[in-house]
Amino acid sequence: MSNPITTIAPEEAVQKLKYYQKGTFTVGNRLVAEADRSVQASRDRSNALTCGHRACQGCGEALGARYAIDAAMRATNNNLIAVNATGCLEVFTTPYPETSWQLPWLHSLFGNAAAVATGVAAAMRVKRRSDIRVVAQGGDGGTTDIGFQCLSGMFERNDDVLYICYDNEGYMNTGVQRSSATPPTARTATTAAVGPEPGNVFGTGKSVPRIAVAHNIPYVATATVADLHDLERKVTKAMSVRGARYIQIDVPCPLGWGAASHDTIRVARLAVECGFYPIFEAEHGRVTQVRKIRRQVPVIDYLKLQRRFAHLFKEGQEDPRVVRLQAICDANIAEYGLIDAVDEDE
Amino acid sequence: MFQVRIHGRGGQGVVTGAEMLSVTAFFEGRHAQAFPSFGSERTGAPVVAFCRIADREIRLREPIIEPDCLIVQDATLFKVIDVFAGLSSDGYLLVNTNKSLDELHIRNAVDRLPKGHAVIVPATEIALKRVGRPVPNAALLGAFAALTQFVHIDSVKRAIEAAFPGQVGTANVAAAGDAYEFVLSQQSAATAA
Amino acid sequence: MLKQIEGSHAMAEAIALCRPEVICAYPITPQTHIVEGLGELVKEGSLVDCEYINVESEFAALSVAIGASAAGARAYTATASQGLLFMAEAVYNASGLGLPIVMTLGNRAIGAPINIWNDHSDAMSMRDSGWLQLFAETNQEAVDLHIQAFRIAEELSMPVMVCVDGFILTHAMERIDIPDQTAVDAYLPPYDPVQVLDPASPISIGAMVGPEAFTEVRFLAHYKQMQALRLIPEFAGEFARQFGRNSGGLLRAYRTEDAELLVVAMGSICGTIKDTIDEMRDDGIRVGLVTIVSFRPFPVDALRNALAGAKDVVVIEKSVAVGMGGQLADNIGAAIRNLTRAPRLHSAVAGLGGRSITRASLHHLFRQAAVQPWEGTHFLDLNEKVVGREIHRKRKNRRSGPTAENILRQLAIATGLPAAE
């Protein structure tokens, strides 16, 4: 020891170790000594992400992550390593000294998950353990904004990494600020619902899935927590392929979107059914499959469930910008062919 | 310690010249330190490289301020920079040119040096003939060996072969040999006269 | 094996002898020749079992190294100047996670104004990042320090930065003894990580740590560096026994016996200082040099012992903390604090942005320290005329324009070259 003066820390100076969740041991606290671990820490439990983490009620990201990583673990016979960007998912799963992850998991920084995953994959290659696969995951902020350069680098080199973006359309971990994935007109902490044009601006948009497709990587898909079987299928398919792969999952955030916790799946489904969130797959630079809209709904149905769009419908007046949001949906439908043309002869 | 400063322009192999000279000295069991003038010089810009040679470890890291020998790869530099800065009074001067020292208007500087310490050699011409490229550095090292007698021509040739393997090396070795003979014949002519 | 070889290529060969498993490469002057050299060794097949990854930025370079190291691979990268700043967040992250990455820093100035030449401001910017920082005096030492760096890093599970003066060392061709593979293998065992991402035994690395444990985590990082104060000389000793030459260690003394004036410096400048000291000794001046090899951890006790007998200490360094002075001088001031009869401390900043440091200037500086000591920070070979004119201009004219360009224009006028006025 090299602390110059030996002291016994007074009780009041040293905080008692907090077990954040419910004051109980229902978390997968594998960072503590074996004897102190809870039953939740058992490696026999089936979920990659054990219950007891401290995500909000109705968290779309927690649901998406659990299904995605479970599917990836099944596909790799549990030979999987996860790299996590800073964000909600990182914070709510690993409050020190607890962790909810049942697989080897590394968090480095906000903007470097793709590069760190490249490093892990390189280590596996050099150690001739290519049976061990790598998943990188982050929110939209860590993916479409601050981690974008590393992501593009990983794609371009075609490193053997599946990158999963949990897209909740904003910086939720820091208190709901705008990201490049935040839709136009949405209210966030940095795009207040005040002034002549309340909420987020209409930019040109930034579709990272399409940017991923433009890298000609082997596999790109969008998915939604409204269709978990489709998500599992896509993750399984992604794990059957070598090289850079990207899956972006629409994961509603009840807190950030101002939606009821029990409406997470409903909101996610409406995002798909109105055409706002196109669900598709692409391989080697070409779109190969789209999820057709079964029963098209107007974008208003989607918007009205979320308080982040409430200013669009203030005092019974519909903001004229709703038309532009509908136009985005219509453009998506046309672009991806989300609705089959009705055969006029029939 | 013997200090050489090589002046030239980007693309003329100035740095490689200094490095090959250091390798020459290394082959003779001596210590040598070659280094460039550290810059983002582009093709055609004035470039300087240095080489120190000594019989013990060289610790000094300052640029060569008082050279014992100047190698000037491009005679147009006399008009642009003070090439002669710091040249010791018993130093050597080797200029790559087709002209005479008088035609270069550097007679004043040359006259301060001991007789026979300043020579010209058409190194670019020799390089074009032997190598097919206007890169005079190898030829100049041959001339350097003849002028100063400080290193042996065989060591120079070995260093050139180490830097350029294969045919390019053979051609450059031939160029160095030509330049070596050229300077020796100049000197014997001068002595005869 | 003795070779006449460029410093960068010698370092590349030494790093290859350490059997790195993942190398991340991104070009930035003046370290580029090192990663180029390594790339060639991998491509031609002489460095096997090594993944050479061309990344898209320095931030990615170190991030890839972080992932590789956490997954149990021996990881290496190199950078300089702006590159180190661009990876700064990952620099702190690598040490915070305790990953034994080795990185070469080809020391170069930081802009603006942009400058590609040598000084130590890049290394100083990360001096408190938790990395060990070792400074090479010669290219031979640069070669040897890399081999020792992997050993130290992996023993402690902490990252090590080997600082090598850009151009002055990286681009100098010299006689260097490159060790053979068997000797390096005997000195450096395979990497045995203290933490590793392994599906057979899953752990979480990089969890959030609150106030209840952060102090302790930081204390242990400090404790590791204090342990390094013991390990660095130990491994240097072992290196000397195995390879037959002294390289590394915490610090080195040169002609310090009976010295009244001691110079303290780091890196390649020490060679020129030694030549200067020999000349001054010939004139009967009792002067010596203390070369600091390990800047982090800072060898406080060793320095106190080395400096205790001197009357005057001149610290000469290639960096300045604007608004404070020299960082090395500041650290040395802290080290000799409370010494009974502490020497007087004189601080000089030299060689900024590649300015040559000559024996002539050093003679002048060292003599002045004994005869006419100065207070504060002295800037060696400062062009006071130019500085004075610019200060005057700024006083006269609110919109005085960009400083760097004004200075360049003044210099152009002074040398008679055409300049826009």
What does this structure look like?
Chain A is an alpha/beta fold and 346 residues long. Chain A contains eleven helices and eight strands. Chain A has an eight-stranded mixed β-sheet, sandwiched between helices. About 3% of the residues of chain A have low confidence. With 193 residues, chain B is α/β, with parallel strands linked by helices. A six-stranded mixed β-sheet of chain B has the order 2-3-1-4-5-6, covered by helices on one side. In chain B, α2 links the parallel β5 and β6. Chain B is globular. Chain C has 421 residues and is α/β, with parallel strands linked by helices. In chain C, α1 packs across α2, α3 runs parallel beside α5 and α10 crosses α13. The N and C termini of chain C lie far apart (57 Å). At the A-C interface, β1, β2, α3 and α5 of A face β3, α3, α5, β9 and α9 of C. β2 of chain A pairs parallel with β9 of chain C, so a sheet runs across the interface.
Output the keywords:
heterotrimer, B: 193 residues, alpha/beta, Pyruvate-ferredoxin Oxidoreductase, domain 3, six-stranded mixed sheet, C: 421 residues, Rossmann fold, 15 helices, globular
Short description:
The complex is a heterotrimer of chains A (346), B (193) and C (421). By secondary structure, chain A is an alpha/beta fold.
Major sheet: arrangement of strands of chain B: 2-3-1-4-5-6
Structural class computed from helices and strand pairing of chain A: alpha/beta
What is the oligomeric state here? heterotrimer
Based on Cα principal axes, name the global outline of chain A: globular
What number of structural domains do the residues of chain B give?
1
Count helical runs of chain A: 11
Radius of gyration of chain A: 22 Å
> What low-confidence regions of chain B span 5 or more consecutive residues with pLDDT below 50?
none
CATH top-level class of chain A: Alpha Beta
Indicate the topology.
The complex is a heterotrimer of chains A (346), B (193) and C (421).
Chain A: H1 60-75, E1 80-84, H2 88-93, E2 105-107, H3 113-126, E3 133-139, H4 140-145, H5 148-157, E4 162-167, H6 208-214, E5 219-224, H7 228-239, E6 245-250, H8 254-257, H9 264-273, E7 280-283, E8 286-290, H10 299-303, H11 321-336
Parallel strand pairs in A: 1-2, 1-3, 3-4, 4-6, 5-6
Antiparallel strand pairs in A: 5-7, 7-8
Chain B: E1 2-9, H1 14-27, E2 31-36, E3 46-54, E4 69-72, E5 92-96, H2 107-111, E6 118-121, H3 123-130, H4 137-148, H5 153-163, H6 167-192
Parallel strand pairs in B: 1-4, 4-5, 5-6
Antiparallel strand pairs in B: 1-3, 2-3
Helix pairs in contact in B: 1-4, 1-5, 3-4, 3-6, 4-5, 4-6, 5-6
Chain C: E1 2-6, H1 7-17, E2 22-25, H2 32-43, E3 51-54, H3 58-70, E4 75-79, H4 81-86, H5 88-97, E5 102-107, H6 121-125, E6 132-135, H7 139-156, E7 160-165, E8 173-177, H8 181-187, E9 204-205, H9 214-243, E10 251-254, E11 261-265, H10 269-282, E12 287-292, E13 294-296, H11 300-307, E14 312-317, H12 327-335, E15 344-349, H13 359-371, E16 377-379, H14 384-396, H15 403-414
Parallel strand pairs in C: 2-3, 2-4, 4-5, 5-7, 6-7, 11-12, 11-14, 14-15, 15-16
Antiparallel strand pairs in C: 1-8, 6-13, 10-12
Helix pairs in contact in C: 1-2, 1-7, 3-5, 7-9, 10-13
